[in-house]
Amino acid sequence: MDADRRDLAAMLHPLVESLIAMELPILAEHGISMWAYSVLSVLDDSPIRTQAALATAIGADKTRIISTLDALQAAGHITREPDPQDRRVRLLAITAQGQKVRRSARARIQAAEDQLLSGLTTADRRAFMRVARLLSNLSH
């Protein structure tokens, strides 16, 4: 252990703040919030179907995401249908338009991330991304 190193949160916080600041204008150009992008990402990448499962997947209280879901549905990015097995449950699905918006935003965000990481060697960039994936999976 390196007793002289800074805590991980102290080291990563400036990077996370920079990433958020970089993403917000891109998301605004696409007419979505950070929460909306999280919702679209989960629905585009996985078979999550209920509002409760979605809330768990993005780390939000299920009542907190209702306004986000309302906005996404009004914009035509998702559908919410009653579950035929339990009409109290809403089944979620991303629409083709929602996929287009999410994928366009993701491409722009990843291009900006690539620019941010361009100062790293290819090997360091690959190692950073590998470790970021591992740490992300550990925190869930």
UniProtKB/TrEMBL annotation:
InterPro entries: HTH_MarR-typ (IPR000835), MarR/SlyA-like (IPR039422), WH-like_DNA-bd_sf (IPR036388), WH_DNA-bd_sf (IPR036390). Residues 5-137 form the HTH marR-type domain. Signal peptide: none annotated. Pfam families: MarR_2 (PF12802). SMART domains: HTH_MARR. PANTHER family: HTH-TYPE TRANSCRIPTIONAL REPRESSOR YETL, TRANSCRIPTIONAL REGULATOR, MARR FAMILY. This is MarR family transcriptional regulator. The lineage of its organism: Bacteria, Bacillati, Actinomycetota, Actinomycetes, Mycobacteriales.
